Amino acid sequence: MSGHVDLTVGIVSYNARELTCRCLESVLGVMRQRTGVVVLADNGSSDGTLETVAAAFPDVVRLSFLDNPGYGAALNRIFSRYPARVFLAMNADVLVTQDGVDPLLAFLDSHPEGALVGPRLIGRDGKPQSSCKRFPSLGLAVAELFAFHALIPRNRWVHRFYYGDEDLTRPVWVDTISGSVMLIRSQAFQRVGGFDEGFRMYFEETDLCRRLRDAGYGVAFCPQATVVHWHGASTLQSSVRQVEYYLSYIRFFGKHFGPGSARTLAAAVAASTALRMLALPLKYPPLSRHGRAILGPKLSACCRLLGDLPRSTALRPPIQVRP
Length: 323
Known about the structure:
Blueprint: E1 7-13, H1 17-31, E2 36-42, H2 49-56, E3 61-64, H3 71-81, E4 86-91, E5 94-95, H4 98-110, E6 114-122, E7 128-129, E8 132-133, H5 138-145, H6 148-151, H7 156-161, E9 172-173, E10 176-177, E11 181-185, H8 186-191, H9 204-214, E12 218-229, H10 239-257, H11 259-283, H12 289-312
Parallel strand pairs: 1-2, 1-4, 2-3, 6-12
Antiparallel strand pairs: 4-11, 5-12, 6-7, 6-11, 8-10, 9-12
Helix pairs in contact: 1-2, 5-11, 10-11, 10-12, 11-12
């Protein structure tokens, strides 16, 4: 048991002030019937998030991490400072209700072998979002890089990857769930060492689920719980995201499938990035100021990605940031 608190809610925000306030309002509504604490970790926002939250939600614990350590690192810091029986990890771009949290708690209470469970996600338009998936294979990753799945979106590999071959109207054990909302048993979380902070922005939840399963725990999808996800609204919609995504992808393969898989994926990333650099001037002709404004950052991101690839294949031990 981790302390006397039943539930610690950890929310990570970065330059998403309005969404963060909506998220906190929804969480505090749920917490009126729970014993626990709500903690906001702000990863160096410059939009006044902390000041607004302090004025509107004085009962919320506020932590400021100016070094912007990433999603998993911020959650590690929250959960080490505010231990509880279970942890609810959330992005700031989600809205929860009692019906979105209670089924998750009930699932863990009735399944002692389970360590982590996630809800069914819907967008703000009410349409369902992918909420669980299998661990990626190297073939799937390479096909994604060269836009095979975009050209043939209904292929059987993608269908199976997102558990299209399973009945997702009932709770089911899965490989991994979306990292936007996760209810985690603290004892299991601590046993596997929390999040690997080498994953700054992507694949931290996939890595955690893999390590939990390797340790003998179950990871589940619970469709009886529904959460609204504004999908990516709290992250930068730019080429910088793609850099972090691919570097984390390679790290995941190197960590769990070996250096050969990491080098193969890195080579595929290099080839697809080179092709993209050739195509970008055609898509964004540098003949106008607008075209140059878009093209420049995208080419810079591609160059950064190519420069970081050699280091991405040299897997370092899991990184832990001190609380």
